[in-house]
Amino acid sequence: MKEEKKATRQSYGEALKELGKVNKNIVVFDADLAGATKSDIFKKEFPERFFDMGISEQDMITTAAGMSTCGKIPFASTFAVFAAGRAYDQIRNSVCYPNLNVKICGSHAGVTVGEDGATHQMLEDINLMKGLPNMRVFCPSDDVQTKWIVEEMTKIEGPCYIRTARLATPIIYDEKERFDNKKSVQFGEGEDVTIFAIGVCVSEALKAKETLAKDGINIRVVDMFSLKPVDEEIIIKAAKETKLLISVEDHSVIGGLGSIIADVLTEKYPFKLVKMGVKDRFGESGNAVELMKKLEIDSEAIINKVKEELNK
């Protein structure tokens, strides 16, 4: 990992700007949060293709759906709690049911929204979005991967949801990295533990990997950036090759990454999975890094959980 950090919301805005230069059909919508979601980067470059719908997320999604029927590729951006929550009905019935080519960005997801508190810390969006027919769900871990996913979304015909974060995190991948024909990326071949992670938790898992190696514990980390469709093969492979499976996510343990992996294991290769994430509760206001520590989804918590489980 590089020392340089960047929030994936920033990468999203930068990607839209660059893609807008080569694809005139890209249009961007926001719901009075363009400065926060970073869609304003596109707005400054292409004001005629940017539409601020105000505090009206349902209208934003429905309008984006309508514009997609005219050959445009609309990206609708707002906080994840409003995108997946407030506009769920419109996403379900106006986008997914007719299978329209609408791209939705749920920014500021998870407890790493920090001081905005429980009302804005969306911990259920993956659960909501993955349950919708026709919807694809992505959760990038760094700047490079976010930009690739946004570009890939323009090539996919149909609904897509991308989950971005407010917290700046390390850049993991080389800027020339491509993820074509992949749904995940594996780091290392450790046979002791596999840690599946998404979003801001991938860099935490990689930190834990380095520390645990010093204690003679060899783990592999899998960045599960595509949640739907999910990489079933790498899940089964990890279950066959490692002693312990752990999932870690800045999302509820109910219906998120852990549940997706558990569904695969139950059907294809029964194996125990330890789920790390936000328990059955809401978040709270506080510093993002401190909240990750308190809710036990940071590198220290991962290290402790690995040692605890291996010692059983």
Low-confidence stretches: none
Averaged pLDDT, please?
A: 97
Helix content range: 40-55%
CATH class of the largest domain: Alpha Beta
DSSP summary, beta strand count: 14
Strand content: 15-25%
Strand order of the largest sheet: 3-2-4-5-7-6-12
Q: Based on helices, strands and strand pairing, what is the structural class? A: alpha/beta
**Helix and strand element order:** EHEHHEHEHHEHEHEEEEHEEHEHEHH
Shape: globular
Tally of structural domains: 2
What's the Cα radius of gyration? 19 Å
Task: Give your account of this protein's structure.
- With 312 residues, the chain is an alpha/beta fold.
- It folds into two domains: 5-170, Rossmann fold, CATH 3.40.50.970; 185-307, Rossmann fold, CATH 3.40.50.920.
- The chain is 41% helix and 20% strand.
- It has 13 helices and 14 strands.
- The protein has helices spanning 8-22, 34-37, 40-45, 57-68, 80-86, 88-96, 125-130, 143-155, 201-214, 232-241, 257-268, 288-294, 299-310; strands spanning 5-6, 26-30, 50-52, 73-79, 103-107, 136-138, 160-163, 169-170, 185-187, 193-197, 219-223, 226-228, 244-252, 273-278.
- A seven-stranded mixed sheet has the order 3-2-4-5-7-6-12, with helices on both faces.
- Helix 1 crosses helix 8, helix 4 runs parallel beside helix 6 and helix 10 (232-241) crosses helix 11 (257-268).
- The radius of gyration is 19 Å and the shape is globular.
- The chain starts with a strand and ends with a helix.
